[in-house]
Give the backbone structure.
Amino acid sequence: MLRTGKEFLESIRDGRKVYLGGELVRDVTTHPAFRNAAQTFAMIFDRRASPENRDVMTYEEDGARHATYYMRPKTRDELRRRTETHRRIASWTYGLLGRSPDHVASYVTGLSLRPDLFEGNRKGFGDNLLAYQRHMRDNDICATYTVLPPQGSRKPEYYNRPDVVVPTLRVVAEKDDGIVISGMKMLGTSAVFANETWVGNVLPLSPSQVKEAVTCAVPINAPGVNVWSRKSFERAAVSEFDNPLSYRFDETDSMIIFKNVKVPWERVFIMDDAELSREVYMRSPAHSFGNHQSTVRFGEKLKLLVAIAYKVAKVNGIAHVPQVQGTLSRLAAAEAGFRAMIAGQIEDCEELVPGYVNVNRRYMYSALLWGATHYYQLCDDVRELMGGGPFQVPADISVLKDPELAADFESYWSLPEQKALDRMKLFKLGWDLLGSEFAGRHTQYERFYSGPSFIVTSYSWNTAPWAQFEEMVDKLMASYDVPAEYRIKAAE
């Protein structure tokens, strides 16, 4: 089933508990902190099935039509369709929605290719996982994930102190019809707009943390689930003109508290295995499917960054300056090189699970690391091109309400090739991407989306063919020797 945007909005008017500070938000689709972003999510659901997108972004399986990001690819062409689906969604949101509906769906679809990993944990869990992937696919579920413990509670010795209430999520009871979980998980990006959250672990657990080693799926409106949103940048937006990105694309991030939440056994996938609860993502295509989507999304954001850089340089009359052209050329080369990293993931695809193709993990992890380490540097380059421009425009568009002020604005801010209003519009856009509080969140998000730098770099360490590299050097060195006249003769 493919849901419409209207059906999606109805699905999140479901009695969920979302807290914005001390305020309980009754309906995220109408509240001024969330309503515009909710409409952005609804737009994605509508556009997928439009005539120009339907053939690429949807596919037929089991007698029904579904979103292509649920496709389990068997050929390179099917991988290309998945990538193009991610790209189109990202292009509609300029790469600013990290947890668009295709992200967690890709993770779960990747996991569904290795049900044996779950079945090995406990009989029936593999079937649970396959049934859940079909549930997401058939009901067109929008999901987030909460797979990190709260900061400050990650030391194993913390869990053994009788004087401390452990905040991180754990299983507190097992019953005939399911389990009971309590605690907190982070970081529920887009949780206020999601139907369900995937609960799991992507950071290592100590062997003793068996009760924290649970993987399950929970509806956001389940009794006992409380979503605590961070500050809404959308609500702080003056207008779409003044804050064109934060006005529509603030997906929000949330801490989710689970207070004695009942999870039926059919929605439980891993129990009491600290190692497997993390390794299941790397031992299946899940981690590469999900992070491939992220690199595609980042590519669209990078494209917007380069486009704004060029437009600002042109408007400021400095695009002809050799040094500025050098900066723009480096930005353009970075964008082209990143696109090549994405294409390489498909063209050099690999078979991680027999019968199915997977994106090239080395290329994917390389792109992931590149984005995490270079985004803020690229933003600095564009900020330098903007100079003091963002501070030279009026506070907001209300200046046009006064005829005398509006006339002065047009007289003093206009340039021969650009009207004052267009100039203001450009710098408001640039500042929202690069200098606003919304922009600061995105800089932090790109640096830590996949975890601390040592975690991200470890992915490339784990997938690099070190043995082949060493063999290459050994073969080269074996092809020549010390000249005979310099050899030391062995003692007779």
